[in-house]
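new request in #modeling-help
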Amino acid sequence: MLSDPRKAPKGSSFILKASDLQLRFCTNETQATREKFVAKLQRLGFDISVPEVFSPAPAATAVLKERGLRPHLLVYDGVLPEFDSVDKTNPNCVVIGDAAENFSYENLNEAFRVLIGLEKPVLFSLGKGRYYKETDGLKLDVGAYMKALEYACDLEAEVIGKPSTVFFQSVLNDMGLQPHEVMMIGDDLVNDVGGAQHCGMKGVQVRTGKYRPSDERHPTVTADGTVDNLAQAVNMILSQRGH
Amino acid sequence: MLSDPRKAPKGSSFILKASDLQLRFCTNETQATREKFVAKLQRLGFDISVPEVFSPAPAATAVLKERGLRPHLLVYDGVLPEFDSVDKTNPNCVVIGDAAENFSYENLNEAFRVLIGLEKPVLFSLGKGRYYKETDGLKLDVGAYMKALEYACDLEAEVIGKPSTVFFQSVLNDMGLQPHEVMMIGDDLVNDVGGAQHCGMKGVQVRTGKYRPSDERHPTVTADGTVDNLAQAVNMILSQRGH
């Protein structure tokens, strides 16, 4: 299992693909559909297809249908098509993603009013990131807005996406494998490594992207291995299998 | 000590004024200066003057000056004059109030960037209300945005205003009285009654405004008395003094 592959050397996933190992990509991307996400990676030369990609929006769609919930959506316009097949009339829950400019005062009040008007308010949050960096500076991520609505409505949101166990389990189900048979490789210690370990998988951190040296003395999460790049992680997996 | 007097019968405060009791008004109003707030009440017929009114913005101004802090402000335009005397160059803290429409995506990101860029981020919140009602519906209050910034920056805000002890203490200092000599009368069980009790005062709730019948079986706050209106509370105080 790999986190968002954009920062990884392309060769590494080719090696994995050439082996008989199953490969899935788990991303917390909530600003685009899987189709757009994959198309972008394909243009960059990655060998990747839509069914291999797991992101929060389609996972949320599955949960909504399973529980007969009709969402009021506060998400980025680009990810709306993932919710096309969901009944959104007369909402009985709220789903928030990283909505960026859609996190306006008016839209936040509207999402709040839907929640507070429900007999049993249910809030889903597509991830719980604190903030992220864009070319024009740092931006508050969905987790901050989740906390605002949680406080206002006195409830706890259900997080869909890494590091949620439900999210990782849905990927394991798709692979038809048990947690101990699968290794997660990612750059985010808490969301990738910790989340996978909590689910019973091994978690290996790569020293790229979100990696910080302080991760190697983190108080609660210890990776099952730390490698400089994805190629090293692939070698580790293959050597552990006796190849 | 009285909470926002707008819902109280005017006669009651006249009775209090005619006695030798000291009277102060404590409000969490953060959308107007005290001058505008008092002018409005005077037009409605209330006998009230600016030095009798305590609200979060001037209390914050005092704290900022005392600690040599220069705020980045995310507040309602109408309350800005309260901060006229404060140095706001090169901010080393953030102050948020109920900014209403000023709680835009861009302004929230800007306040966040100031905080996260500080070596020791300090966030002041003028109150911590969850939400309030306006003619066009419910609105998220400052507490929700406080929680968003707290989570994003991994810090705890300092709340200025009711129910903060620092806030009530500043009013007691102004009166030159000890807590046991003062009674707080208000309609908000947690912010008025609980806050005052936490500070050592007696707290009486009036069954008006924010009062809910469930307040009388609240798990953590029990009022020292519950009355139907301010006149009853005034009678209670005067009779307890033997008048």
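bot summary: The longest strand of chain A covers residues 202-206.
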